[in-house]
Design goal:
The complex is a heterodimer of chains A (178) and B (150). Chain A is an alpha+beta fold and 178 residues long. Chain A has helices spanning 2-19, 34-42, 52-65, 91-102, 157-171; strands spanning 21-22, 44-47, 69-74, 79-87, 110-124, 130-143, 148-153, 175-176. Chain B has 150 residues and is of the alpha+beta class. Chain B has 2 domains: 1-31; 35-148, TATA-Binding Protein. Classes of the chains: A alpha+beta (178), B alpha+beta (150). Chains A and B meet through helix 1, strand 1, helix 2, strand 5 and strand 6 of A and helix 3, strand 2, strand 3, strand 4 and helix 4 of B. Strand 1 (21-22) of chain A pairs parallel with strand 4 of chain B, so a sheet runs across the interface.
């Protein structure tokens, strides 16, 4: 009985590999696409200031306020990378899991997630009168059996709007769309 | 009696395993599959600028455009490392990761040399095409033409 489960698992993995495709490919992921540029628009705001370092410091403080830990920074280049680990439990997935288990096809629900933020700042305009801020969020999700379930970019515009609203408030500056 | 013999044989096997393990690690640590000169040429482009900061910012902006997450950046050394990993088991998207290290250094008096080296699914990328795509993307952010170098 146990052995047949194992064989079943291996077969399932083979089928998944055959049907599924690689989430990142060399052909696709090193060329710019219109979708990537649309995302840039959503993830970017422009601020009327000459002080890039002040913006970077405020971003660091904002990330800290929202529970992130700074992993890497390079002020000369206007970079901040931060991450946090949080619970990823979802009631719907648990319901699906319980119903699935009853019928013998359990799909382990999400358990933990690592969220990452990547902020860049860049002076623009004549004599660098404005600073452009771009933030990208992504997350890695693990299921209850500690297996990798998903790595995805977070593309909900609300997340980005909320980030820039908080940043504007902290800076006392208005954020312009690019 | 037999178990003693077995033990001795097993003990003999251990160094053998250790030897093979060492050999493969050595090979992989300092492997050079393609001719080094050819690979360097595929991975490098020269830009007509001496502005290291601007060039590095353009590299970072390009990587961010391409959906990469930055792992580290060092202005003094002129090194940027970024990676892009995606997976979605529910959507049958199999885990795959692409890592890139980009270095910037002066080339003569008037140019900067940008070199990118990529690693895909735990193997080095030696094809010219992916690098060509990357430099095409970078050219747009630099507003400068990327020159092929020998």
């Amino acid at each position: 009985m146990r052995v047949s489960y194992h064989i079943g698992g291996v077969l399932l993995a083979c089928v998944l590999l055959l049907v599924g495709c690689f989430a990142v490919t060399l052909d696709r992921d090193l060329s710019l696409t219109p979708e990537m540029l649309a995302q840039r628009q959503m993830q970017t705001r422009r601020f009327d200031t000459t002080d890039e370092q002040k913006i970077l410091k405020t971003c660091a403080a904002l990330l800290q306020d929202t529970g992130f830990t700074i992993d890497e920074s390079e002020a000369t280049l206007g970079i901040l990378i931060a991450s946090k680990e949080r619970d990823a439990s979802d009631a719907t997935q648990w319901a699906v899991y319980l119903v699935g288990s009853f019928f013998g096809v359990p799909i382990p629900p999400d358990k933990d997630q690592i969220m990452k933020a990547f902020v860049t700042t860049r002076p623009v305009g004549t004599e660098g009168r404005q600073v452009v801020v771009r933030v990208v969020f992504e997350r890695t999700v693990f299921d209850t059996e500690h297996r990798l379930k998903k790595i995805e970019a977070l593309n909900d515009p609300k997340i980005y709007q909320s980030f820039f609203e908080k940043l504007s408030k902290a800076l006392f500056l208005e954020a312009h769309d690019i | 009696m037999t178990s003693d013999k077995l033990k001795r044989n097993l003990l003999l096997l251990v160094p053998l395993f250790l030897l093979t393990a060492c050999a493969t690690t050595h090979d992989r640590l300092l492997d050079m599959d393609t001719s080094q000169v050819q690979l360097r040429s595929i991975q490098s482009r020269a830009f007509d600028t001496t502005d290291k900061e601007k060039t590095m910012r353009a590299i970072i902006a390009t990587l961010q455009d391409l959906g990469f997450m930055l792992d580290r950046a060092d202005y003094t050394l002129g090194v940027v490392t970024a990676s892009k990993a995606r997976a979605d088991t529910m959507q049958m998207q199999v885990y795959a990761s692409l890592r890139v290290t980009v270095t910037v250094r002066p080339r003569g008096e008037k140019q900067l040399l940008v070199r990118a080296s990529a690693e895909y699914q735990r193997s080095p990328v030696t094809d010219a095409k992916p690098y060509q795509n990357f430099f095409n993307s970078l050219e747009k952010a630099m507003f400068l033409e990327a020159h092929q170098v020998d």
